[in-house]
Amino acid sequence: MADTNVARLLPAYGREYPATEVIIRTRLGNMRIRLYDDTPIHKANFLLLARKGVFDETVFNRVVKGFAVQGGRSDHRTIRIADYHLPPEISSRHFHKRGALGMARYDDQKNPGKLSSNTDFYLVQGEKLTPYQAQAMAGRKLTPEQLRTYETTGGVPSLDGQYTVFGEVVEGLDVIDKIAAEPVDNTMWPRQDVDIKMEVVDGNK
Fold first, then answer.
1. Domain range for residue 152?
2. Do 68 and 82 meet the contact criterion of CB atoms below 8 Å apart?
3. Is the pTM value of this prediction over 0.85?
4. How many structural domains is the chain composed of?
5. For position 161, which CATH number holds?
6. 141 burial via Cβ count (<10 Å: 0-12, 13-18, 19+)
7. Could you give the 3-state DSSP secondary structure of residue 110?
8. Angstrom distance (rounded) from CA 83 to CA 71
9. pLDDT tens figures, 147-183
10. Chain mean pLDDT for the chain
């Protein structure tokens, strides 16, 4: 797998080995994630690495309370995978509401094409925002649905249009809050590791 062929290989993998949901298990509880069909590259990549057990050797390594919890990295991973990036599948349909699943990336200066990491994912915690606050944070026109969701559910509108959202938590939203409440060091790494175990729910495991 390489940057030059992921857009072809990953959707093909997704068609051959389809699945819709994964479960992330942690010592603080479990989360059921639904992956979006209209982000086929990110969806297939997540399923592929979950089935290979790549995420099972990782932790939530960056926790910012009121913002997001990021996982997919570890100092002890033994499974080796190719160093590739994912082309963006950014859509206004999928925004950074509470529970949204996105893929991290380098900033625009290093990465003007907004290519996603292949392993570093995040789950949005965010905060409830008034329509005025949400609109100001977004820096662009939000839809009525987005404004309503940010007000009633919460999220981080400043990330919209910058990162690919490719799924959402459908069970276990409270686990994000528990992870976000963990004490962290000066790098935002939890002082007690929050290990990740991931299971593909349907399709081929």
1. 6-200
2. no
3. yes
4. 1
5. 2.40.100.10
6. exposed
7. coil
8. 17
9. 999 999 999 999 999 999 999 999 999 999 999 999 9
10. 94
